[in-house]
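Take a look at my tokenised protein here and describe the backbone shape.
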Amino acid sequence: MAQIPHNKRRLYSQSECRSQKIQILVNEALAAYRLAIREGRAQPGTDVDYNRGYSADLDRWYSMHIAHDRREGHSFITIGDRSWPLIFTDNGHYRSKIGKFMPNAWAQNQPKQVDRLQVDRAYVQGKDGRNVTALFRLPRSRIVGTKYELDLSHDVWKVSSRRRHQLRREELIKELIPMISDAQAAERALLGWWPRLKKERPRFMVHERFDAIQVELRDGKPQARRRGHGAYVFKGGRDRYLPPNP
């Protein structure tokens, strides 16, 4: 049995490893089982044994056994010399005629009985007993496991509030001056530039949008957030929030 390394320093992140959603492999095995029933090679109401599966994301061959009673039966997936139990949960739901997800109370209030869609969600259970939706493969290795077994880290990009506000100012400046370069936009955002004249409004921009950008660049308040279909509402009148004329 392959020895899973304990990555104390978390040398690998999830984005650096190959990953495979287990639900995709389960759907592939069930599709092959339904095809075998139509062709007469399998009987309905029996266990599913899928032994010729290939995961392109993991670049590994796998075999899968799905019990007929998915709640009480023993299902598992095998990759190489390791096996993981498969856990199925009931995600059945109702849908309206337009395809919208509806609660149970909606189905009870319908004049006719509505069929409940039977949907099973598949999980892989690791050695620690945690259920996950995907398996990972370490880079330059054939070791496969869950993110907890391999002790993979998460990719988090932390941005300070000051940097986030500066990026927001650069975005608004580029909207006012489409032909400006990234360096010039960053310089104006750092210097606290804001348009003081009405003639600085681009020809294609409506007055309400320009006024909102003008207020946000001047005061640093999020006034230029889009609301609805391009409508910008100023409480108390638009002139109340405009800067004084130079």
In short: The mean pLDDT is 82. The chain is about 25% helix and 20% strand. The two ends are 77 Å apart (CA to CA). Residues 38 and 186 are 63 Å apart (CA to CA).
